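new request in #modeling-help
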Amino acid sequence: MASGGPTVLQFPQASTNLTAKIHPLVIFNICDCFVRRPDQAERVIGTLLGSVLPDGTVDIRNCYAVPHNESSDQVALDIDYHHNMLSSQQKVNPREAIVGWFSTGSGVTGGSALIHDFYSREVPNPVHLTVDTGFKDEGRTIKAFVSVNLSLGDQQLAAQFQEIPLDLRMVEAERVGFDILKTTTVDRLPGDLEGMEATMERLLALIDDVYKYVDNVVEGRVAPDNNIGRFISDTVASLPKFSPQAFNKLVNDSFQDHSLVLYLSSIARTQLSLAQTLNTAAQLL
Amino acid sequence: MANSGARSFLQAVATEEVATPLRVVQIEGLVVLKIIKHCKELSPALVTGQLLGLDVGSVLEVTNCFPFPIREEDEEIEAEGANYQLEMMRCLREVNVDNNTVGWYQSTLYGSFQTVELIETFMNYQENIRRCVCIIYDPSRSNQGVLALKALKLSDSFMELYRSNNFTGEQLRERNLSWVDIFEEIPIKVSNSALISAFMTELEPDTHVNQCDYDRLQLSTHPYLERNMEFLVECMDDLSMEQQKFQYYYRNLSRQQTQQQAWLQKRRAENMARRAAGEEPLPEEDPSNPIFKPIPEPSRLDSFLITNQVATYCNQINGVVGQSFSRLSLMKALHES
């Protein structure tokens, strides 16, 4: 250590209150890159793109892999490639900037600090995302880290990786439907009415569950829970109160509107098919 | 030896390709998500992108894609766009992505995609790639809880006709081509790698309800239906305009024919008189006369496309209304119970 005086090992003040949110596309892309990695490579490394939301959450929305070479103590990233790809990506969506980098494998490894250093020069406080493609750590396969400096006096000793909470809720993916994203092959996309049917079945199942629960509570088989009770009563109360006549009128009016539209479009369709048959059959002139 | 072997292999591949028609488009989940993300983020602007993948027998595998920047009407920027495309392909090749163009994707609003531009783009692609598809994604429809993806290609007979650029009624009748035969929809299959499937299963346990269900149970479909009706009415107007064009053409044609008849009769009578007088008869045809100039027949392409569009709207409306009916019945049953 430098000249005299007590030096203090400074730990970072209270953990950073960063959180990260991840778009399912990123996970898909990382997996795809991993599957397509070069023969000898053990992991893939790449850049994360996204933005920092006003409340400090890092929103990771896109990513791309960057080729790299790894030997025992050295990591060489293809920086040209990284910059080319970045400028291409920004042509499409200028709002997406670098927010960090990802690597497959579980947790932080020796080379990580070097790469993190590189990304720190691109963007202040990058996020490091690790995706464990070997599923070694049960239940926690995707982690996010930020680096904090550990210094002794004025002297910087090392960088410490600190894990930050990661939001993995996937509204985007939900819209597509897990059914088609979870399994390895789906032969056909679900249609309008099939989807509707599935939804109704699920709704019915839920209502059944509620009934069962209420019955159980009433008969004393299950200990009542005030919170659940409030939820149920809120739900029931959210149904607007109508007189039966008013409700019937409303429903019937809607029915009639829709029938009219349906009628119109069916007529148009019939007209079209009629015209088509006439057109091909008739020997004009 | 090796050379001849390779050639015969190539030949074998080529002949095989001709033999098997395209049956299924197999898309990776990654591509689905990428398309959705790109289309949704820039909605309501319409966007396009390129599909990369492999052509395997009767299946066209789409394994990756990349978006195009929004196009601008400027030569310089257009050249830049081409550069961008090459650059992106080069970059993706470096990380072992299939770099084989198999088509493109584009977003649409309320299914209004059947335009002459689409066909032109198709023909452009078709020149370089024998088998290409266009994947169409409709963000407005996806808000209703449906995955609105469609894979289209032009039918072979239509392409032939388009190349000859001859959309007269006679030609169409001869080839027995009607408006339903312009586009062919190809069934879509979605596939995921085992790794992704494992991740999704781990990250998202089975839930009773998801966002899709909420979207589907949304009672108000009016905005969507209204827009659809608006477009339908517009299309009907266009269609009747086209029809008027044809009526005008036929009226002109029949007028011309009567004129020709009259002229011919006159000429015959004249010839009779001349023959009686012992003179040479005049020819019965006179190309210099303006009434013999053929009137160009208007192209049927536009009306075909409009008809197609109308049919799409009708189908969409029927679908939505069908859903609404079930929703209303559900609502009624709920309220009564």
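bot summary: The first strand of chain B starts at residue 24 and ends at 28.
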